[in-house]
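User: I'm curious whether this sequence folds into something compact or stays loose and floppy. Could you predict its structure so I can see for myself?
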Amino acid sequence: MTIVDAHCHFWRLDRGDYGWLAGADPALDPIRRDVLPKDYPGDARLIVVQAAPSVAETEFLLDLARQDSRICGVVGWVDLAADDARAMLNQLARDPVFRGVRPMLQDIAATDWLLDAARPEALRALADAGLCFDALVTERHLPMLREVAARHPDLPLVIDHAAKPQPGARDDWATGMQALARLPHVQCKLSGLLTEFAPAARADPLPALRDIVAPLIDWFGPERLIWGSDWPVLTLAATWERWRDLTDALLADLGLSDHAAIMGGNAARFYGLAP
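Assistant: Here's the prediction. I'll summarize afterward.
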């Protein structure tokens, strides 16, 4: 089975544009260091996702891809509200490894920013260029994201980290995710789940993870779920190997072909990866 890790990050801190890592939160101390392809612990093809809201970081990631053949796709950043958003997207799309964009919606105070501020022509340009949209959202964004997705049925869209559900009661999350799952061009990433758990819940997370993943399998089907590690952010909660083992347990009731699709085939199709 060929694994595609559809969500990992690399960064070099001296570049200076990782604002979320520059703060004083001691919880981030273990990952407040340079993280480069040589440090990646798994055996997988890699989709590297932006971690800074700058085109300069996107170009840094594309340069890493030229140095390491495991990186088969980069999801970068473009200011979708800027006058030159379409031109910038078309320029970046000249590199075949550039596969899409991810605005950092979870960090924008305005929940409806994607509706009210992002330029519709920029979203159309993504689809026209054969690019994808990674949605870094939480529960509060789901109704807005459903409206955006409905307006752009030709734009492949994936919900990062399953919109970061919290363990326990999640009625609004479930309603929002089911509504998005009814749109056939919307996918969901099984990534970033463990880091949402409280430290005490990480010792035996499988029951709580099943409560999240089982409905996602029901809503999206195995053909629209995409596996990712969210490494190295993952390491705040578990090792890469631990998350891989937990995923195998979560998908144990699926057939081999469905399991393989979630672990790699769906990502290859969604992002249009070369063989």
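Summary: The chain has a mean pLDDT of 96. The first helix runs from residue 55 to 67.
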